[in-house]
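Researcher: We plan to redesign the surface later, but first we want a full-length starting point. Tokens attached.
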């Protein structure tokens, strides 16, 4: 049986921490779908199309990873992709409570699907897309937290504002 996992998120922008989890997940599962949520309510810096494009560009060397945008319920997206596992990243204890609630709701909505939690490599434990955007919007250097392609895209987007 082919094990398909979904790694969902807004990925606004996709960070080196996200990339670390994608690479590690690709070693654990036959196929990983990075599901990029439209999340219009979060008012993303990058459009869904830009986020999908950037994720594709930085993961194109990982054969068993596919990038797809989605809107609506995550469990519906997972069912459409025939995934039976959700991958969620936990950076700190503060993430756990929220992620635990999400896992419970997802289990209620789709009992056959499991959620697994991965912790990032130590150098990425404090990185979040929100923090990276905030630092970058104030002129801070975030290049060590982003793939060069993503760093350039974020800089160009902030310059246009």
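Model: Full-length starting sequence:
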């Amino acid at each position: 049986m082919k094990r398909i996992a979904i790694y969902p998120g807004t990925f606004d922008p996709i960070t080196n921490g996200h990339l670390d989890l994608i690479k590690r997940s690709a070693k654990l599962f036959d196929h990983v779908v990075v599901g990029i949520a439209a999340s219009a309510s979060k008012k993303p810096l990058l459009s869904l199309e830009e986020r999908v494009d950037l994720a594709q560009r930085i993961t194109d060397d990982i054969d068993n990873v596919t990038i797809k945008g989605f809107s609506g319920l995550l469990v519906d997206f997972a069912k459409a992709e025939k995934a039976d596992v959700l991958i969620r990243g936990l950076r700190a204890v503060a993430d756990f409570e929220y992620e635990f609630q999400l896992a419970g709701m997802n289990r209620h909505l789709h009992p056959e699907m499991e959620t697994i939690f991965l912790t990032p490599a130590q150098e990425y434990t404090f990185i979040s897309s929100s923090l990276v955007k905030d630092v970058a919007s104030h002129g801070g250097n975030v290049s060590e937290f982003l793939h060069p392609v993503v760093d350039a895209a974020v800089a160009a987007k902030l310059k246009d504002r």
